């Protein structure tokens, strides 16, 4: 079988939907979130297409979703203008699933409003981060991919504790939509 040739013996369990757990630095990680029952089909592909009309059209016609970046907003009139215009065009073309990636996250920073003319980020306190995530949801984005950083040093987030993960998860309620519908 194909699974006999895979280097990771847990891969079949991930795809079979049974899941598994692993202890990492004394934190139990639930890998069942990676599980996808075989009957659902192959992984989906989303196209990182920024705001170009031909690329947005390609994301709609040939891919399962569209990826916008939270980073480049300041180059195009600000994150709010860029994301509002781009997601409207994507939805008008018939696009279904839309996500924002490269969203820098450091919830240890002070609460503050986000500058509409800069990039979209969560370098702020938890209350401000929740407000920012709600703004993205109101624009119509389905998913957000976070990039954890220490804003003071610019380096990786350091130790990812259960408390930090719980704090991030508490920013918005868990999405109960069936991901197969998006």
Outline:
This protein is of the alpha/beta class and 182 residues long. It has 5 helices and 7 strands. Strands 3, 4, 5, 6 and 7 form a 5-stranded parallel beta sheet that branches.
List keywords for this structure.
182 residues, globular, 18% strand, disordered N terminus, alpha/beta, five-stranded parallel beta sheet, two-stranded antiparallel ribbon, 7 strands
Would you give an account of this structure?
The protein has 5 helices and 7 strands, in the order αβββαβαββαβα. The chain is globular, with a radius of gyration of 18 Å. Residues 1-25 have low confidence and may be disordered. It starts with 10 loop residues before the first helix and ends in a 13-residue tail after the last helix. The strands form 2 sheets. Strands 3, 4, 5, 6 and 7 form a 5-stranded parallel sheet that branches. A two-stranded antiparallel sheet has the order 1-2. With 182 residues, it is an alpha/beta fold. Strand 1 and strand 2 form a beta hairpin. Helix content is 29%, strand content 18%.
Secondary structure class reads alpha/beta
Q: What is the number of strand segments?
A: 7
Profile the largest sheet. Answer: 5 strands, parallel
Radius of gyration: 18 Å
- Into which percentage range does the β-strand content fall? 15-25%
**Unreliable residue runs:** 1-25
User: What is the helix tally?
Assistant: 5
* SSE pattern: HEEEHEHEEHEH
Q: Report the helical percentage.
A: 25-40%
- Shape designation: globular
**Chain-averaged pLDDT:** 79
Distance between the termini: 32 Å
């Amino acid at each position: 079988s194909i699974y006999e040739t895979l280097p990771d013996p847990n891969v079949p369990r991930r795809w079979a939907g049974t899941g598994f757990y692993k202890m990492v630095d004394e934190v139990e990680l639930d890998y069942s979130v990676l599980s996808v029952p075989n009957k659902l089909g192959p992984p989906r592909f989303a196209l990182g297409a920024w705001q170009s009309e031909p690329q947005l059209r390609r994301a709609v016609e040939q891919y399962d979703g569209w990826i916008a970046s939270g980073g480049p907003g300041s180059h195009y009139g600000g994150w709010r203008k860029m994301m509002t215009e781009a997601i409207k065009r994507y939805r008008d073309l018939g696009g279904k699933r839309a996500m924002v990636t490269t969203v820098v996250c450091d919830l240890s920073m002070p609460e503050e409003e986000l500058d509409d003319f800069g990039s979209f980020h969560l370098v702020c306190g938890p209350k401000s981060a929740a407000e920012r995530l709600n703004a993205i949801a109101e624009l119509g984005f389905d998913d957000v991919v976070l990039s954890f950083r220490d804003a003071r040093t610019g380096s990786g987030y350091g130790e990812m504790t259960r408390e930090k993960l719980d704090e991030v998860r508490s920013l918005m309620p868990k999405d109960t939509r069936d991901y197969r519908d998006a």
